[in-house]
Amino acid sequence: NAGVMQNPRHLVRRRGQEARLRCSPMKGHSHVYWYRQLPEEGLKFMVYLQKENIIDESGMPKERFSAEFPKEGPSILRIQQVVRGDSAAYFCASSPGTADSPLHFGNGTRLTVT
Amino acid sequence: KQEVTQIPAALSVPEGENLVLNCSFTDSAIYNLQWFRQDPGKGLTSLLLIQSSQREQTSGRLNASLDKSSGRSTLYIAASQPGDSATYLCAEQGAQKLVFGQGTRLTINP
After folding, report:
1. Which of A66, A75, A89 is nearest to A23 (CA)?
2. For A66-86, how does the pLDDT look when each residue is reduced to its tens digit (9 = 90+)?
């Protein structure tokens, strides 16, 4: 019974390239959350998605960042034209979607922009 | 707006001591309060989850309490060990999302 799977674990991109981070939720979970953790900081909410819908994107930067959770396949967090300030750990969590169900976290993707 | 604050930001104690980590939150309509552990460069390990109807949860040497009326939670660690050294994160779950505190970096000295 696999948990939340994120890949890649580590991703290195040069400034200006695109980064694509993938998250496969736990089996039976239809809700996905993305969080970002900058060095020496706590986790900041980015976006909350259900299948084919963005529910809350209040934490997403206005430009260059997008997220999707298609009907089939993993959720994707996409960062276009990366800059050094995008270097961080990006964590994905999933839940079955009931109001008080806990979130289960993946091990994160560590993005380094050179 | 949901906000979570953790005090202290860092704590260093000798091995064997009992200690308390503090967490305060502003959302009175929380669904649950969760404590996580994070080792350097690693992911999150869920330690304890307290539902809004509960007052505390215990797991081994760990005990977490929840006081909704005052907006506070504490994590009590008994008989601390060097292996307990990590960052401890508190997070409160509201209607839509989990909001984290900045964490307390704990160091247990042998």
Report:
1. A75
2. 999 999 999 999 999 999 999
